[in-house]
Amino acid sequence: MTTTQHHSALEAAELRVREAGRWLNLEDGLIDTIVAPRRIIEVSIPFRRDDGSRDLLHGWRVHHNTTRGPAKGGIRYHHEVNRDEVVALAIGMSLKTAIANLPLGGAKGGVCFDPKQYSAAEIERITRRYVSEISSFLGPDRDVPAPDVGTNAQVMAWIMDQYSTGVGHATPGVVTGKPIELGGSLGRESATGRGVVEAAALMLAKQGKDLAGQRIAIQGYGQVGMWAARLAAARGALIVGISDVSGTVHHAGGLDLAKIDAAIRDGARGVCAAGVGDVVARGLEGSPAVFALDCDIVMPCALGDAVHEKQANEMKARLVIEGANGPLTPTADLILADKGVTVIPDVYANAGGVTCSYLEQCQNFAHLSWDEDQVNARVIDLMRSAFERFHSFATESRLPYRLAATVLGVKTIADSHRMRGLHP
Ligand code: GLU
After folding, report:
1. What's the rounded mean pLDDT across residues 332-354?
2. Can you tell me which atom of ligand 1 is nearest the CA of 357?
3. Which mutation among 102, 357, 364 tests ligand 1's pocket best, with the greatest number of atoms within 8 A of CB?
4. Looking at residue 185, what DSSP letter applies?
5. Is the beta carbon of 146 within 6 A of some atom in ligand 1?
6. Which of 99, 192, 347, 383 to mutate to test the pocket of ligand 1 (most atoms within 8 A of CB)?
7. Confidence band (pLDDT; 50, 70, 90) for 7?
8. Can you give the residue ranges of every domain in the chain?
9. In principle, which of 117, 196, 239, 310 could form an S-S bond with 228, CB 3.0–4.6 Å?
10. Which tens digits make up the pLDDT trace of 238-252?
11. Summary count for the chain: helices (H), strands (E)
C-alpha cells in the first residue's frame, strides 16, 4: 500500500485506482481516464424554511464512470458532505458495480445539511429543488440515484415525483430504493445487510469455518447494521456488541435484538437506552469502543473513517467486513494487515444494496415484480458469483483483498473502455 493516514478519502481512492492501474500495466492516459469523473455538477439549493424565511444549501452529483452502463449510486444528506467526498464515494460506486459485474457505472450525490435538524416538509422542498437543479443529469438510462446516509424511500419517492413531473410521465426507473407501492423492490431495505452477512459467511467458508457460533460486533444500527445483526443472528451468530450514536452495548452471550428493536420502536434513543447488555461507553465518543470488544468478526456499518490507528491496534477480531463505505483509514488498513486480520473491502462487502437496486431496475423495465424470496435469492446468487470471481482473483494474484478488489474493478472498467474505443 502506498497510502497513509494523511490522505483524504478522495486522495486515498485515487491512489488505489492508480496503484491498480500500474499493477495492470495500463497506459497512463487510460489510468487518468478511469480516475477522473466524467462530469460533476455543483448546485445551490435555495429553499423556504417552515417559518417563511429563505435558506441556501449546496449539493453535488458526480458521474464517475459511465462506460459500462448508466451512472448509479446513492444520494447522501449529511452536514459534513463535500465535493471531494462525493467524488471519492462515486469512484467507490464505479468499482462496486464493476466488481459485482452489474451493467452499471458509478455515481454519488450529496447535499450538505443535517436532515435531523429539518422538518419533513423542509426536506421535501430541499429534495425537489436539488432534483430540479440536477435533472439534466438524471434518467433511467443516464443516472439512477438511490438511498445513502441520511436519505430513505420517502426521499426517493419525492425524487421520482419531481423528475416525473418534469418529463411529463411517471418514471419509476429513475430511482431505486423507492417505496414498494411506487415500483420499489421487496428485499431492498435488507439487501445491503444481507450482502454483508453473506460476505462474512463466504469468507469463513473459504477458511473452513461456519457463521453459526461466530461472535460479531457491529458499529451502526441503521439500515445496514440492523439488518446485518438480524440476519447474522438468524444464521446462528452471536451479536456480542452493537454501537450507535448513544454508545456501545456488550453482552458476551449475545445481545437480545428483539428487545433492542422493541425499545427503539417505543422511542428509546439508541441501543444504550434499550436496557440490554452492559453499556461499555456512552455517547458518540463511546461508539468506537465496539471495535475493541472480544469477538471474531467486526462489521463497521456506520460512516467512513470510523476505524483509526487506535481502534485498529485494539481490535481483537480476525475478520472485518466493511458494511459502510470507507470505514477504515489507510493507516488502520495497514495495521490490520500487519496483524494478519482479514478485511473484506466495502467495494465488495456492501454491494448487496446496489445489486438489489439493479434488480429493482430490471423489475421496473419489465413492468413486473418478484416476490421477496425471489429477490433475496437473486441478491445472494449475484453476491456469490461476485465473491468467487473476486476471491479467485485475489488467490491467483496473491494480492491483499482490498487491492485485489480494486484491480478487478479497474480491469473490468479498463476492458470496457478498450472494447468501446475512443470517440471521436
Ligand atoms: N448507497 C448505496 C451504496 O453505497 C446504494 C447505491 C445504489 O443502490 O445505487 O452502495
Report:
1. 97
2. 8
3. 357
4. P
5. yes
6. 192
7. confident
8. 37-170, 190-349
9. 196
10. 999 999 999 999 999
11. 14, 12
Whether residue 310 is predicted with pLDDT greater than 50 in this model: the reply is yes
Q: For residue 414, with 0-12 CB atoms within 10 Å meaning exposed, 13-18 middle and 19 or more buried, which class applies?
A: buried
Total-model pTM: 0.96
For ligand 1, whether the C-beta of 74 sits within 6 Å is yes
* SS3 annotation, 8-55: CHHHHHHHHHHHHHHHCCCCHHHHHHHHCCCEEEEEEEEEECCCCCEE
Same fold, 37-170 and 190-349: yes
User: What span, in angstroms and rounded, lies between the C-alpha atoms of 37 and 272?
Assistant: 41
Q: What's the whole-number mean pLDDT along residues 221-235?
A: 97
pLDDT > 70? residue 257: yes
Angstrom distances, CA of residue 329 to CA of 5, 74, 342, 400: 6, 22, 15, 16
C-alpha to C-alpha distance for 402 and 306, rounded to whole angstroms:
17
Catalytic residues: 108
| Confidence at residue 6, expressed as pLDDT on a 0 to 100 scale | 62
Give distance in angstroms: CA of 113 to centre of ligand 1: 19
- For residue 42, list its beta bridge partners: 60
Q: Is 94 in the pocket of ligand 1 (CB under 6 A)?
A: no
Is the domain 190-349 a CATH 3.40.50.720 member?
yes
Ligand 1 atom closest to the CA of 148, numbered from 1: 1
pLDDT-based confidence at residue 63 (cuts at 50, 70, 90): very high
Name the average pLDDT for the chain: 96
C-alpha cell at 158: 419525492
Please check the confidence at residue 1 and state whether its pLDDT lies above 50.
Answer: no
Instruction: Compute the distance between CA of residue 142 and CA of residue 234 in angstroms, rounded to an integer.
Output: 38
Of 99, 148, 194, the one to substitute when testing ligand 1's pocket (max ligand atoms within 8 A of C-beta) is 148
Phi, psi at residue 227, to the nearest 5°?
-70, -35
Would you say the CB of residue 64 lies under 6 angstroms from ligand 1?
Answer: no
Return the CATH number of 37-170, one of 3.40.50.2000, 1.20.120.80, 3.20.20.70, 3.40.50.10860: 3.40.50.10860
What is the H or E stretch that residue 111 is in? strand 106-112
Residue 62 alpha carbon to ligand 1 centre in Å: 14
